[in-house]
Amino acid sequence: MLPIGSKGRTPSRSSSPFPHYLRRIIKWQQMDIEYTFWQMLHLCSSPKVVYQHTKYHKQTKNQWARDDPAFVVVCILLLAVSTLAYCATYDHGTGHAVFVEQLWLQFAGCMHLMCTAIRSSHCLSCCTVTMKGS
């Protein structure tokens, strides 16, 4: 008979999925780079296709987000390349490249926080209207 509980033992792995996500950044063989570039291309040309694909993924695997950190890694690499190209074009040094990179990352973080706040307030208002109506 299999044991039902852990009998007071703590699990060896963290319950947070974030360390698992960080471990996958190191392993290039596990990243789906081809799908990442497909997704980036279609986000610019036809975002509806990406949304439908993501919706299908949610229906089949019951998960909105991807386990693969390849999108984040590719975005950071493209940001670094574009920053170096900017600094090379306008004859700036490495220190300025680091400054521009940090500026872009801060801008992206602020945009993420604003979008998350708007989404949360919108979802909260939608959920309260739906609950009141039922």
UniProtKB/TrEMBL annotation:
Cross-referenced Pfam families: UNC-50
UniProt KW keywords: Membrane, Transmembrane, Transmembrane helix
Residues passing through the membrane, by range: 70-88
Any one of the GO CC terms: Golgi membrane
InterPro entries found in the cross-reference section: UNC-50
Keyword flag Transmembrane: yes
Topology term for the membrane: Multi-pass membrane protein
Subcellular location: Membrane
Coiled-coil residues: none
Family recorded in the similarity comment: Belongs to the unc-50 family.
Protein name: UNC-50 family protein
Originating organism: Ambrosia artemisiifolia (Common ragweed)
